[in-house]
Design a protein that fits this description.
The chain has 2 helices and 27 strands. By secondary structure, the protein is an all-beta fold. It folds into 2 domains: about 110 residues, Immunoglobulin-like; about 240 residues, Jelly Rolls.
């Protein structure tokens, strides 16, 4: 299995034979774009003694003499940066060896410029983990190359730099979620105090990621915060901070997990992320998701704090009238990710991984693509 850059395009193909039998085989191709690809089409060729019995996930046109064209179906007609579409072919080979065709050209597609790092504001903080070697344990020393670290917990145990996945560049931060012990991996990364911040990053849950425990379904994801980062059942009182992390629920259902002064219970308020169609948003394994939150703290004594969230460039949350604290500025990018809750009822059925990349913290909306 190898990932091959397709000539004259921004698409890459990860092609492999997933099943092989006498007289035929199943070929799977994961096509990933590094830029926006609209109405894409690809050509490929098979020797004439091979024939395609069926194609799934893409539309297939035979042009004769073993020449074929494929294009996307439905939502797959346009690929966003980092998005993948899977094509499956059932091929008759008349007893010959299975072969993997080469996708040689891109026809009729509208392709944006390749993804490149935006020109950020001078004050913006940007971390893509490119200053590390693959396999580096992301302990305090490693984190200090990227962030001002106040504290970290279990990052030396569950966090490492990986070159097997990257949303851009060559590296990402790989997080392991064990199935046989409690992980509370996290870190307080200090940022200059401001009343308003935008916080963006990309996350990709590995294929087959298990979001659910044996009895409970929940997991934490990074967000902004202030001060003592009120969480874990400690209700904000105005002087012990706040947190605005994300969570996944059953099956990857996406929420914001907000600790604020007027939350209805002891634990943070769980607010579902919903698309323009009113449907709940879900994290999908094997896909890069972009999360952006804008948080503006309230003035002292007033309920005028705000939080907005965008998921994959779609606004999915808009809350006003919050009391987050007594007016103290946001000072933390709060890295927090684990299954739970707490205890084995929350743990996944198998050890799983997720990758994080392209963190941006800024007071400027343009720095996070808004």
């Amino acid at each position: 299995m190898a990932i091959t850059k397709i000539s004259n395009s921004t698409l890459s193909a990860n092609s492999y034979v997933s099943e092989d039998w006498k007289g035929g085989y199943k070929l799977e191709v994961d096509l990933t774009s590094s830029a926006v690809a609209k109405d894409w089409k690809l050509n490929f060729n098979l020797a004439t003694d091979y024939s395609i019995r069926g194609a799934y996930g893409v539309d297939l046109v035979s042009n004769g003499k073993g020449n074929y064209t494929i294009d996307g179906q439905g939502n797959g007609q346009t690929l966003d940066p980092g998005e993948t579409v899977k094509a499956i072919f059932v091929i008759d080979d008349l007893g010959k060896n299975a072969v993997i065709p080469k996708f040689t050209s891109l026809m009729g597609s509208v392709i944006s410029n390749p993804v490149s790092a935006p020109q950020l504001s001078k004050s913006a903080i940007s971390v893509g983990f490119e200053n590390h070697s693959s396999g580096t344990v992301y302990n305090n020393a490693a984190q200090s190359k990227d962030w001002k670290v106040d504290w970290s917990n279990q990052m030396d145990k569950f966090a490492s730099i990986s070159s097997s996945e990257a949303r851009s560049g060559k590296n990402s931060l790989k997080m392991n979620y064990p199935n046989n012990e409690q992980s509370n991996a996290g870190a307080k990364w200090v940022i200059p105090e401001q009343q308003e911040y935008y916080f963006s990053y990309w996350v990709k849950f590995d294929k087959g990621f298990d979001f659910d425990g044996s009895k409970h379904s929940s997991g934490k994801l990074p967000g902004l915060g202030e001060g003592d980062l009120a969480s874990g059942g400690t209700k904000p009182n105005g002087n012990n901070g706040f947190t605005s992390r994300y969570m996944w629920r059953k099956g990857g259902q996406a929420t914001v997990y907000l600790y604020h002064m007027d939350q209805p219970g002891t634990y943070g308020e769980d607010v579902l992320l919903k698309g323009k169609d009113g449907k709940d948003k879900y994290f999908q394994p094997d896909k890069w998701h972009n999360l952006v939150q804008r948080v503006e703290v309230n003035d002292a004594g007033l309920a005028n704090g705000e939080i907005d969230v965008w998921m994959d460039n779609e606004k999915v949350l808009d809350i006003d009238g919050l009391r987050l604290n007594n007016g103290q500025g946001i000072d933390t990018a709060y890295f927090s990710t684990f299954h739970g809750g707490y205890g084995s009822d929350w743990w996944p059925g198998q050890s799983v991984n997720a990758h994080f990349d392209d963190f941006v913290v800024s007071t400027n909306a343009a720095d996070v693509g808004l």
